[in-house]
Write a structure and sequence with these properties.
Blueprint (H helix, E strand, L loop, with lengths): L4 H4 L22 H15 L2 H17 L6 H19 L10 H6 L2 H22 L14
Helix pairs in contact: 2-3, 2-4
Keywords: Chaperone, Mitochondrion, Transit peptide
Family: Belongs to the complex I LYR family. SDHAF3 subfamily.
Protein name: Succinate dehydrogenase assembly factor 3
């Protein structure tokens, strides 16, 4: 029986990260396919309550950035959302801590939004897991 080249081939480290080369980042998806991919990932991988919250957030962010013309902002926006989509489609995102460099780059408004999200998640977990927990009354609206 004759050995073929395929059977004689040995895996090589040439061109891989172990060979000392930087990993090539994936190509950025255009906005509309990325938007659809995000909504599909939410539908497939998130619980209904989390999906509703996530879908609303995605829709508002894409609407808010619809008229952005600065290429640097567009690339940053699309790459972060693409990274998010990859994390949601994987299983390692739950309980993962945020990168400190990303937090340092956030504006005060973004940090406030992140804090509100964290507070609502903690309050929901307390309400579900502690039968004696009473939710605080809602804060009066500022006029």
């Amino acid at each position: 029986m004759r050995a073929t080249l395929r059977l004689l081939a040995v895996p090589s480290a040439v061109g891989t990260q172990s060979a000392g080369l930087k990993q090539v980042p994936p190509a950025l998806l255009p906005p509309i396919p990325l938007y659809r991919r995000l909504l599909r990932a939410h539908r497939k991988f998130l619980e209904p309550e989390m999906r509703i919250l996530g879908d609303q957030y995605i829709k508002s962010e894409f609407r808010a950035h619809r008229d952005t013309e600065n290429p640097v902002h567009i690339v940053g926006f699309l790459s972060e959302w693409q990274t998010y989509a990859q994390q949601i489609e994987g299983v390692s995102w739950r309980g993962e801590k945020m990168d400190k460099t990303k937090i340092d780059k956030m504006s005060d408004q973004q940090i406030g939004q992140l804090y509100e999200l964290m507070s609502s998640i903690r309050e929901r977990e307390l309400a579900e897991n502690d039968p004696d927990y009473e939710a605080p009354p809602p804060a009066p609206e500022k006029q």
